[in-house]
Protein 1
Amino acid sequence: MLDAANTITINQRRHALQDGIPVWLFGYGSLIYKADFPWLLRRPGSISGWVRRFWQGSHDHRGTPKAPGRVVTLVEEPGAVCHGMAYQVTPEVFDHLDRREKNGYLRLSLPFQLDDDERVDGLVYIARADNPAYLGPAPDTAIAAQIAASAGPSGSNRDYLLRLAEALRALRVNDPHVERLAGLVDA
Ligand code: BEZ
């Protein structure tokens, strides 16, 4: 199960990143508040046609194989816009991020917007419904209960959710899915 979800090798083979050529990366989850890598530029941004959802299982960061937590992924939804943070980085940064986000996330090449409406093509980590760690939709109360009960090597799942909610508020982004879950977990 865990090996099947491990995406490090797949991601390293997917995109031929050229030495020294900077790449844009769109972050919509922990990348917004945990930029533990060097970046050249950082700008708020958004990606159209996708929504942020707590539908991916976390066995390695905010849960364990026996009791997975829930973390965000992007899900396609026509007409939707998901706001986050874009980073321009050197290709070496992906060696680190491919390891950090190895539990089912694939790096996809997608267009997104920077805050000044500049459109760029960049990379986005997305956990698709066909990965073994995917949990999918559930009632908000069930998702919140799972988050409240989970913890892993990177800390509690509650902390992940509340830090994301706080980071989105700081960006003046209203994400009803995240806010509803934060309210339930806080209660
Ligand atoms: C992000 O913050 O964009 C992100 C979310 C999940 C996995 C990797 C990155």
Protein 2
Amino acid sequence: MKTQVAIIGAGPAGTLLSLILHQRGVSSVVIERQSKHYVLDRVRAGVLEWTSVELLESIGMGQRLHAEGHRHDRVKIGWGGNEILDIEFEKLAGRPMMAYGQTKIQEDLYAAVDHEGLDIVFESSDVELHDVTGDSPYVTFTAGGESQRIDCDYIAGCDGQHGVSRTAIPDHVKTDYERAYPFGWLGILSETPPLPHLLYANNERGFALCSERNPMLSRYYVQCPLDDTVKDWSDDRFWSELTARLPDDQAAQVVTGPSIEKSIAPLRSQVIEPMQYGNLFLAGDAAHIVPPTGAKGLNLAIADVHYLSGAFVARYGGDATKLEAYSETALRRVWSSVRFSWWMTVLLHRFPDESPFDQRMREEDLAYLTRSETARASVAQQYVGLDY
Ligand code: APR
Ligand code: PHB
């Protein structure tokens, strides 16, 4: 096969990139390790920055998003037992955010791929990148029991945190910035009505988060020790711990019910620099990981695709400057979001080795946010995301 851009990974980043390139006249083939069903079955994020909403609208994916998404003008933060503060991002930063599950985005992306007749090769294995810094890059892989090769001009590594693309950048070229957090998030889905607003909570027992997927599907999280397993958490224990970490008036509104999904995820911050090497360009989780506290992972993947797709289109129009500057351009937003996600994580979680002084400083931060509209505006601007 021959194509202009070979894309590795059919998650949100790779699929969105292929769609935008197609609409702008650039050909691509997507190579995905898992089956379509497996990718769609993953339970992932649920909050879209307004720039992400606008980008999805621009490629014709706004209809279901607005029909089934839930627009929010604020999030709430519970702290100090029964204190609660509102981050009113529509009032303070001039734009809302949209609660819309990544699963739905992936469904919409695959529906658009099918409608446009684009190429995703699912259940591929042994993917290898070749001649990445040469004039004739190509990708080899096995699919349908046969060895395959795609010759291309460029390779887009959209294969996530466990992907192969980032390993194609030599260790002496790349810098891997990483921080692992000493706790995880235990998340559940329950077919119950969610709270009216997203609610984060810092409590002496630990962090909690109340979110949603639709009017009858709630998504809840509690911070848990890294060595916990879902077997340690019955539904009763989960609901008891969640409500114990919320302000009383919010806990009283939680509608409990059986979990239909329960999983524990570790939290990590990671950035690979540079995000390009020769004819290889990384986008999404392949280049960076953020703790979910800032709701940035999916939005960063979409932002990378915004920059990279524009750079490829400009390149084929005869202007290589954006492609040469892709890594520098994308990393500005990446580092801004990585810092915000790290800051929100330190602000809202309890660390195993922390001192009473640390928690006291945390509560002073939260008290300052409660008192200062200027401080809340700063958080609001970063939470809903900056312009591209
Ligand atoms: N060959 C082919 N495909 C691969 C390989 C490989 N060697 N390794 C990984 N993949 C595929 C994975 O199966 C996955 O479908 O690449 C895809 C990467 O998708 P994501 O991990 O979802 O990453 P991305 O598209 O960047 O989206 C980031 O997804 O993980 C969440 O929190 C993250 O919301 C953020 C979003
Ligand atoms: C979610 O809905 O899954 C969600 C919301 C906000 C976050 C993280 C996850 O910060």
